[in-house]
Structure formats: structure tokens, C-alpha cells
Amino acid sequence: MLLIGSIFTAIGLEEFLVPNQIIDGGIVGISIMASHLTGMPLSLFLVLLNLPFLYLGYTQIGKTFAISTIFSILSLSYWVSIFHPITEVTRDLFLSATFGGIVVGIGVGIIIRYGGSLDGTEIVAILLGKKSGFSIGEIVMFFNLFILCSAGFVFSWDKAMYSLVAYFIAFKVIDITIEGLDESKGILIVTEAPDEIADALMARLGRGVTIFHGEGGYSGESKKILYSVITRLEIAKLKTIVQEKDETAFVTVTDVHDVMGGRVKKKSIH
């Protein structure tokens, strides 16, 4: 999967972004600008500029992560050199930014999902995130905005703006690739009719339900609390079921980024 992810990323770069002087964020973006300024191959900079960060990743994060990242970067470097001689798909800047962002986002998302990385700035962000009050996402965003704005000086300001478009598209596609289109939601229900709602969720949605035993903070009364994992598309139906059984029920919906084990798979509905 790391190999497949690197192939997608290389196609997005060499067939859409790089020929049209549109850059991606992070070390990849710096490599594109360095290659343009020096005339040296992009594949060379992808490896050289990531070396210091790979050492940091090995010493601070772990051997498995470092090995996966090294494989991903070397694979991307190889496939970039393979796709470089091939004529780009389009010269239209908007189409290049849009579809380049989509293809790169799919590739990077696959690599991240399977434990690798293509970007040394992510490693720095992980380390800084432990020592600062900023999240990893905020630190990566800061680095990338600085890098993408630099494209205005190297290429032109319209290319820098198209680079921002490509980056934000890739950013969203990475999330979709990692989490899947069938986005999961965690549901917590505090109700006076727990058994009826649990039976309805299992019968009408085909979802398993876990029951916690809690206590009201104000009333001190014992309560049953329901927890289930459903898809984004099932939220409306769940709300209808809860309203039918208990109009006063308290319901919270939270994002679930990964699900494994348990009775998560949907059962057939009769």
C-alpha cells in the first residue's frame, strides 16, 4: 500500500502540479522550488531534504515509522523520475490544481493510513506538538502556508494561489482517504427508555449497542447510557428513532477516526 500511495503521489506531482509550476506543501513543495531554481532532478531533492527529518523520526518516534517513511520517500523519488518524461495531462492551471490535489491527496492519505510519511515537516510537528500548546495540524498548517507563499517569489503570485487551492484540496482528500467515505460517528444516548431505543437501533439500523451504567450528577438517579457507532448517513434515522421512543433523551454525536474489533459491521435489517 505504501508503494501504491507513492505511485499516486508521483502521478499527481509530475502529471498535474510540477509541469504547471504548482507546488504542494511541506518538503515536497520545497523540493519542487529547489528543482526549479537549480535545474537538478526533483527526485534528488525529495531524498536529500528529508534525510535530517528521517534521522529525527528514527530517534524520537520509532524504527517502524522511520523504515516505512524511508521506503515511501525512496519509492516516491523513483516513480517521480519514471513519470517525469511523460507529457502532462493538462496545461489548464485550475484543472491541474484541482485534479493534482485530488490525486496527491489520495496518495499521501494511503501512505499515512498505512504507517508512513512523505514529509519531514510532519515529524517536526509531532515533536513540537509535545512541547508546545499547538496541535500537530496547526504546526503543519503554519509551515505549509509559509512554504506555499514562497512559491509567489519563485514562480508567480497566481501560481502561489493555485498552489493554495491544490493544497487545501489535497488536505481534505487526505482526510477522506484516511477515514473513508463511510465516515463513522460515535453516538452517546442518555434516556429514560434505554431498552426500547437499544432494541430499535439493533432492529432498524442493524447496529450493536453497548450499555453503560451511570448516575445523574444532579438527581443521583441510576441511568443506563447507550453507546453505538454508526455512519454519517445514518444520523438522521437515529435521531428519528430516539425522538419516537424518548423526546427528552440527551444525544451527543462525535467523530470516530478509526474503528476495529467488536460488532461494528452492520447486520442485515429485517
Task: Tell me what you see in this structure.
The protein is of the alpha+beta class and 270 residues long. Helices cover 61% and strands 11% of the residues. It has a four-stranded antiparallel sheet with strand order 2-3-1-4, with helices on one face. Helix 7 crosses helix 8. The radius of gyration is 23 Å and the shape is elongated. The longest helix is centred in the middle third of the chain and has 23 residues, at 157-179. It is built from eleven helices and four strands; from the N terminus they run αααααααααβαββαβ.
List descriptors.
270 residues; alpha+beta; 4-stranded antiparallel sheet; 61% helix; 11% strand; elongated
Describe the largest sheet.
4 strands, antiparallel
Shape: elongated
- Relative strand content: 5-15%
Class from secondary-structure proportions:
alpha+beta
Query: Would you tell me the overall average pLDDT?
Result: 84
Our measurement of the CA-to-CA distance between the termini, rounded to an integer number of angstroms, reads 37 Å
Helix-strand blueprint:
Blueprint: H1 2-17, H2 26-38, H3 42-48, H4 51-60, H5 63-83, H6 93-113, H7 120-131, H8 136-154, H9 157-179, E1 184-190, H10 194-205, E2 210-215, E3 222-231, H11 235-245, E4 250-256
Antiparallel strand pairs: 1-3, 1-4, 2-3
Helix pairs in contact: 1-5, 1-6, 2-3, 2-8, 3-5, 4-5, 4-7, 6-9, 7-8, 8-9, 10-11
